[in-house]
Structure prediction request, 546 residues.
Amino acid sequence: MIRTHPGWPEAAAEAYRRAGHWAGLTFDTYLRNWARDRPGRAALIADGRRWTYEELDTEVSDLAAGLRELGLSRGDRIVLHLPNCAEFVMLWFALQRIGAVPVHAMPAHRSEEVRHLIRVSGAVAYVVPVRHQRFDYLTLAAEMLVSEPTLTRVIVHGEAPAEQGFTALRELKGLGDADTPPRDSGTTASDLAVLLLSGGTTGTPKLIPRTHDDYAYNARATAAACGADEDTVYLAALPLGFNFTLACPGVLGTFMAGGTVVVAPDPSPQTAFPLIERHGVTITALTPALLPHWQEENRNAPQALRGLRVLQVGGARLADETARALHREMKLTVQQVFGMAEGLICVTRLDDPEELICGTQGRPVSPADEIRIVDTRGNDVSESGEGELLTRGPYTLRGYYRAPEHNARSFTSDGFYATGDIVRRLPSGHLVVAGRIKDQINRGGEKIAATEVEEHLLAHPAINAAALVAMPDERWGERAVAFLVCDPASAPPSRRDIAAHLRNRGLAAYKAPDQVLPVASLPLTPLGKVDKQALAEQHIRSTSPR
Prediction:
């Protein structure tokens, strides 16, 4: 059998088992246990509907039976490209029940990203809505069925076209016999449970393999650090496909604690506030870019958030002053969350003093998380010094999926993952994030790989050279500025032209640059690489008041 990714050394795995971090249970076993132990407790609320844990388990069994009738089974990879809805959660667990592996796509992804996910994972099925935010997913799915030889089936949430290869999600419940005791899928806790997306800094995103053991611990440990219990009501406002929303503690951590998950179709305050008030939501998670909208709505309708106890903020660096303003204005506990789909999660604790909550990005959720902070030569920095964060632990991967060359660059010989984040550590163990060394733009929590966008910019007939650079932005944290060397015989393309060009090449809309600047040439470093720092400094000087 060809190994798709490195696993933990057996000695480390055994230590995690002995410590109780790895419980040896699959997600399907967890769900069955929850349904047995708390059958009548509310598990999921979405689209005006409510399911108890027992009812959720029944729905999952029905879907799993249908998936088996379609010929899906243990080890199959299925790209899950749904917006926030109850069916995302149910289908995710149904795939776990048959031993298949969900591959997460974000709602904003388009043909380029989806094709990459299918090809790298070898996906045999693709799950889509009919439309979402005015985008036609059926046309995209039909295109994938034609171009991707591994893909044989499209499952549609909504009305499926009467064409070969398409099946409506609702039809799955009638395909199989859910009353027949299902055969054991043979899945073990060390098997692959899900493939998550990396932020991506070197072209197209990498796939992150998470096992049942490590991902369940990710959810349990974060839930404990958030004080989650059976009274917790979690609002899933950010996309369910994000690691943050699914397992930090998110949906899975809330279920682990016996709480209730409320699914919001979008994170706008106009949508979220009524759900928070109606269902007694106690905790939710946002990115910094969404906070101004929530703060403004809270000034107009403060009663809606009276029961909200914890507001998690992550996905991008939260400014210290913004954190203090949230404390003052919204009368709740802000919990900063710093982490990555690759593993390590740090959070501020609910009882931390204000200076730590507002001025740091938290400390690891597990006592088994190992941290090193190193200089450019790989040497550990002095106490409180800044350097690159390296980490390993019971829920941090040891290698990306089908990416041996990238793994050789991203991991040390003894298994530490080089995150690319520049941090310093306080005596309390809390980390302060100072920046990144990887070529990535974090626009309000959306990670944009500069290399990927640059490759597509160079396909434009009027562009001879391109550099995508992160610039500070008050609203988004960072914005993307494209510096373009254009053909002198052509008119420089506008920002709108560039957005249309990238859209036509199948890129998600959020990857289009916020600003486009024609330049005569791109400065180079002594090694011949584009000097993006010089470009950024040049731009700052040119826009600074004189």
In short: The longest strand covers residues 463-473.
